Amino acid sequence: MRRTMSRTALLLAGTCLAQPATAQAEHACMRYPTEHDGTIVFVSRGNLWSVGKGGGAAARLTSDPGEDVMPRFSPDGKWITFTASYQGSQDVYVIPAGGGGARRPTFHSDIGPKAPTR
């Protein structure tokens, strides 16, 4: 299964789809794929999307302004953590695996003059 996921992740990570828009085609690059139990979550156009391993229409999981990157499933598959820059700095956010409101468990700015110490 890991080998299959690796192939799927590589194909997904390097794929740009042309989707019909009004008069022109828009291109959507899919990046940062992660998989759990047959569901793949990836980033496209700054938001998280979910699609079954077998393909089909992708469902948008986030729509907040800002860039979402590096999604990862929790070990039980119930949550997705990711990094986002919704309020000017990059922090960790968590959403339910099926989508929903994002919760921000970290509050340390990455743009301050000095990184926080322990």
How would you briefly describe this protein structure?
The chain has 118 residues and is mostly beta strands.
Task: Please tell me about this protein's structure.
The structure is a single chain. The protein is mainly beta. It has a domain at 2-14 and 28-96. Helices cover 10% and strands 41% of the residues. It has one helix at 2-13, and strands spanning 16-20, 25-29, 31-36, 39-44, 47-52, 59-60, 68-73, 79-84, 91-96. Strands 3-4-5-6 form a four-stranded antiparallel beta sheet, with helices on one face. It has a three-stranded antiparallel beta sheet with strand order 7-8-9, with no helix packed on it. A two-stranded antiparallel sheet has the order 1-2. The protein starts with a helix and ends in a 22-residue tail after the last strand.
Largest sheet: 4 strands, antiparallel
Backbone structural class: mainly beta
Mean pLDDT: 78
What global shape is seen?
Answer: globular
Poorly predicted segments: 5-25
Radius of gyration: 16 Å
- SS strand fraction: 35-45%
How would you classify the quaternary structure? Answer: single chain
Helical amount:
10-25%
Q: How do the strands of the widest beta sheet line up side by side?
A: 3-4-5-6
The first-to-last residue Cα distance is 39 Å
Structure summary, number of beta strands: 9
Count of DSSP-assigned helices: 1
Query: What is the string of helix and strand elements?
Result: HEEEEEEEEE
